[in-house]
Amino acid sequence: MSLVESFNTYRSRMNDKILNSDSLILKRIFNLDTNAYTEGSLDVKSKELIGLTCSLVLRCDDCVKYHLGKCKEIGLSTSEVNEAMGVATLVGGTIVIPHLRRAFEYWEELQNV
Amino acid sequence: MSLVESFNTYRSRMNDKILNSDSLILKRIFNLDTNAYTEGSLDVKSKELIGLTCSLVLRCDDCVKYHLGKCKEIGLSTSEVNEAMGVATLVGGTIVIPHLRRAFEYWEELQNV
Amino acid sequence: MSLVESFNTYRSRMNDKILNSDSLILKRIFNLDTNAYTEGSLDVKSKELIGLTCSLVLRCDDCVKYHLGKCKEIGLSTSEVNEAMGVATLVGGTIVIPHLRRAFEYWEELQNV
Amino acid sequence: MSLVESFNTYRSRMNDKILNSDSLILKRIFNLDTNAYTEGSLDVKSKELIGLTCSLVLRCDDCVKYHLGKCKEIGLSTSEVNEAMGVATLVGGTIVIPHLRRAFEYWEELQNV
Amino acid sequence: MSLVESFNTYRSRMNDKILNSDSLILKRIFNLDTNAYTEGSLDVKSKELIGLTCSLVLRCDDCVKYHLGKCKEIGLSTSEVNEAMGVATLVGGTIVIPHLRRAFEYWEELQNV
Amino acid sequence: MSLVESFNTYRSRMNDKILNSDSLILKRIFNLDTNAYTEGSLDVKSKELIGLTCSLVLRCDDCVKYHLGKCKEIGLSTSEVNEAMGVATLVGGTIVIPHLRRAFEYWEELQNV
Question: Which of D15, D23, D58 shows the shortest C-beta gap to E82?
């Protein structure tokens, strides 16, 4: 199974379990999360770039993968994604680089999906 | 080997190596860590909930696993654990969600141990 | 003006501005935040200890102050609060100590309010 | 002196000292930082939104102030800035809220400069 | 009162309160902290550089101030301190820069004590 | 393949991809990173100890591995490395311990390369 497929499968399976649990707080956070990235005062592209770079500086590989998937879906180019990740790496420091490696690998796989 | 078993095996093996090393600081930190979660002004349950949620907001999967194991051992219910993790996710943000997925998976496995 | 009074005044004034802004996401996060610390599967005391210690390991002075105020309000003792902060300092490291100093100062002032 | 003025004055004064020091690494980081936010594959607006939100999730008040100043300069609206900060608060959690308060205060002052 | 004096005064006063509290965990952490920076396999200079740079990447102004004070005391030169802080800024990213400004200011004041 | 070999292989492969991309910011960060650890006002040993401990408190396993590899290369002893990691664990808290386990495992493997 590719990186993309295994990420999506695990994510869906566990999100279902979380949403089927009795935790009201978690359900509301998930609901809020779904709505937050839709078009508002900012367009979807700006919001996904925010989601991607915040995930990268906070060094959350799975969050980066999720937003890379969305960036691909909405048609962001490799140059745009790389430049955004460049700014994030500058802000977050060289400590971000290992996460950048995994992001590059995942983005490459996304081109073949 | 289950997630629980492989976590515990690796943890024990490496803790032994650390404690058999020549590092006095590390030995004292480990000793302090063992004592900190015993009953004092707060009961063990309150302390484990603190350990679990601090681990979750700091996004340390292994620390979360360890405290989930203790929460199970001392008889915390799924509702209690989920609510604690809900508060932690609110405090720490959606960046905590991937760690929450792994926490739900591990808690599920703990029920079958 | 005391630390407690100036913290509360500024917090209320700015929260009003945030809630009177046009940001739907922020309004929903604030609403969720208010509800999360009410009694559920866990009692209010456990939740405030979680709020306090998560704030301390994440090193957010204002969040610590807010939860110390709530801990005082619901009748937690100095020993309970100190022990919770001791566990948090162990989890978060000596980097937490400067925040602990400010927490001790604020807790002391809270006794005189 | 206003918040804006005192921030800018201190920042300029200390940046001069850093750049006049003998540290080659620091000079190169500062130089890179200046260039990173100019138009490239992404426009300046997208980059400033990235700078602002990454600063907010990493909870750096001074970095937030700097990017709010730039956002004002390039003509971002209050709605756009608030929505970006809403997404960042969701990603980073309620721990971001105290920084959001200071960001709202600073943005308000920027309107009067 | 200078930055150095006010930092030291507040630090001593609050450390006394913490050590006079009933928290055994905190007392042991403070004791461990005092011992950790004495000469062992590494000399004091190496340990203070570690303390300084770890404090800087974790963005704790008070911890940075404390270690700058020690670096001055044991005779580290401005070039050595600046180079160490340069590496830390590279590792931790531009988000470290505001803390660097305050570190430069404090180091300058330390020269006049 | 050993931990050391698989780390180095993946790191080299992905670094090549990043450097062959069109991102000027990333290229400049990588270039700066290479130069920062060479001898200057501080010797290479001091700089590698800084790199190692900053990586550990920021809890970046891959960064820790990289600097452990360099520490081995330049002849640091196990006692020196362990003591540095002890100080870092004290600064960063027990949350660092899972990363310490993986660091001990990797250091052990490095002795057999």
Answer: D23
